[in-house]
Q: What sequence folds into this?
């Protein structure tokens, strides 16, 4: 059994029938991490109890106790999700030594399903970024070419998955942070409908946009992961009470009779690199040949999605990050004498030293947009336009089942190439942010290869809670892509 | 629109200490980003209710039961400075 290629379903079956032990599986990936991580910097903390945790699964099986559908599956978790007794940093100095006393709901659910947590994965600081270059713990590298970014903010997850340092990974997506790195690294990444996955225990960036999701090697594995992590959680008041469908059992790799919408705006506004366009057009053609009906749709307000996203996300972030004050946890600046300090200086210095440049920039931006005199013109206005955007999507989905689009305008870019111009960096998200604003489910599935050998993904979006439709269409595209399960040769 | 005074005011509201270099950088960058936002002001939103939560939210009430989830030790375990179970801070009065 090649543990780099086996599906979650097959592996957990093999563990249940004692063909292989969870401990062996975990050891295999720990060995890979030891060998491969120094060059990639995907993992930034390791679970020192991983083998022990795996052994517990084996012991349960030995006693004929039931184990879950992910028994023995080794996962890496983006370091934005709290893991009990395992350092969680959000990629920031301000949480450099933070040890959560609890697990995020997503982590709880994975563990209950029998998964073993290998460690924590690198990310842009507080999930703010599209290249994993803002992490306090150093850049993460793209396994396809280590001079290139893996994308962000879930860069560590994408890199670990592409190089098979884990069987599965979890990322989060606020404006594209699962889908863009998935495309850059050639893995399957799903952002569920807002409310499908509990945000309890996920360090908040923008509370009305954040969602966690799987970043894995195949659509089948993504479907199974979603079944495990989705579901109502009374500890998250935005968590949906809708039943979670059996995504993996219902998975049908077909687009026959499916109405696939192509956004008029993406053709006229975005400047796609030729190999991205070629891949996108090929995906459309393959779908058409397999019986899909291709229709043109229009969501005009998507042309404002990037500024809307940054305005809303920065505003929410400025509020969410106010809690990092050096009082109860997190970084506190060195002070000679607390008793003669002003509280303001205490906060300003701790936060000024603890946060990185991009985070501070977004906090400043958000503070401005929410401040007296500007709230109506900026934040409130953006929220009004957000409703209109969502309504336009709902109308568009009257005429199609799923929307097919590119994920990015180009393949992965070089480290350092875009970091000095925030606006250029922000435009990376042109195809992904509208999905978060509207709360829709979206995924990236690898489909093509760029002229320089980098993976290229295509994106599928559906109406609220219609993940099955995008999973089915993605499973079809995966089957005809010729790139299913493709990894860089060295791995 | 965005001058040094505004940057200083925002930094104060956000309780962020920024260097003069950072201040100059942010002034330039924020002005650029904000001008990008100005396009949004042209959209007609008369009578439109702002949207904050993008998908349906059903009111969910849980039983009013006290649950002890953490010990006091766990709650102060990440304290940068503490005195027993108390967090040490500068004077607040």
A:
């Amino acid at each position: 059994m090649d543990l780099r290629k086996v599906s979650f379903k097959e592996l957990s079956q093999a563990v249940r029938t004692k063909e292989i032990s969870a401990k062996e599986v975990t050891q295999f990936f720990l060995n890979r991490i030891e060998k491969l991580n120094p060059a990639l910097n995907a993992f930034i903390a390791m679970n020192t109890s991983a083998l022990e945790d795996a052994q517990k699964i084996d012991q349960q099986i030995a006693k004929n106790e039931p184990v879950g559908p992910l028994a023995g599956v080794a996962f890496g978790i983006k370091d934005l999700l709290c893991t009990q007794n395992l350092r969680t940093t959000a990629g920031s100095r301000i949480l450099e030594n933070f040890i959560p006393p609890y697990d995020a709901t997503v982590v709880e659910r994975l563990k209950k399903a029998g998964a073993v947590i290998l460690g924590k994965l690198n990310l842009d600081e507080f999930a703010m970024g599209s290249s994993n270059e803002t992490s306090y713990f150093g850049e993460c590298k793209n396994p396809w070419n280590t001079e290139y970014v893996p994308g962000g903010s879930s860069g560590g997850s994408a890199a670990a998955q592409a190089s098979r340092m884990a069987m599965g990974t979890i990322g989060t997506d606020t404006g594209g942070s699962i889908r863009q790195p998935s495309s850059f690294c050639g893995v399957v990444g799903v952002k569920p409908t807002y409310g499908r996955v509990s945000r309890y225990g996920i360090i908040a960036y923008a509370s009305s946009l954040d969602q966690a999701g799987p970043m894995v090697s195949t659509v089948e594995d993504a479907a199974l992961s979603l079944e495990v992590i989705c579901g109502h959680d009374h500890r998250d008041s935005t968590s949906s009470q809708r039943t979670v469908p059996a995504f993996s059992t219902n998975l049908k790799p077909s687009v026959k009779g499916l109405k696939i919408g192509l956004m008029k705006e993406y053709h006229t506004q975005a400047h796609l690199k030729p190999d991205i366009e070629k891949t996108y057009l090929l995906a459309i053609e393959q779908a058409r040949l397999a019986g899909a009906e291709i229709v043109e749709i229009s969501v005009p307000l998507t042309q404002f999605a990037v500024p809307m996203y940054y305005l809303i996300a920065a505003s929410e972030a400025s509020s969410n990050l106010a809690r990092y004050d050096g009082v109860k946890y997190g970084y506190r600046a060195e002070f000679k004498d607390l008793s003669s300090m002003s509280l303001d200086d205490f906060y300003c210095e701790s936060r000024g030293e603890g946060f990185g440049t991009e985070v501070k920039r977004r906090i400043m931006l958000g503070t401005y947009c929410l401040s007296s005199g500007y709230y109506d013109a900026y934040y409130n206005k953006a929220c009004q336009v957000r409703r209109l955007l969502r309504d336009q999507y709902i109308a568009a989905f009257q005429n199609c089942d799923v929307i097919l689009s590119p994920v990015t305008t180009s393949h992965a870019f070089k480290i350092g190439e875009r970091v000095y111009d925030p606006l250029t960096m922000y435009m990376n998200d042109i195809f992904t942010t509208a999905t978060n604003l509207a709360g829709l489910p979206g995924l990236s599935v690898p489909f093509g290869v760029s002229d320089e050998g980098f993976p290229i993904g295509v994106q599928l979006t559906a109406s609220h809670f219609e993940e099955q439709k995008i999973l089915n269409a993605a499973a079809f595209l995966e089957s005809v892509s010729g790139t299913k399960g493709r990894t860089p040769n060295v791995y | 629109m965005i001058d040094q005074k505004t940057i200083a005011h925002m930094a104060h509201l956000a309780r962020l200490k920024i260097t003069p270099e950072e201040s100059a950088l942010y002034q330039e960058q924020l002005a650029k980003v904000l001008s990008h936002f100005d396009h949004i002001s042209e959209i007609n939103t008369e009578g439109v209710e702002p949207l904050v939560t993008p998908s349906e939210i059903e009111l969910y009430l849980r039983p009013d039961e006290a649950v002890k989830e953490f010990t006091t030790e766990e709650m102060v375990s990440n304290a940068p400075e503490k005195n027993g179970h108390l967090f040490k801070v500068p004077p607040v009065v």
Q: What stands out?
A: Chain A is about 40% helix and 15% strand. Chain A has a mean pLDDT of 95.
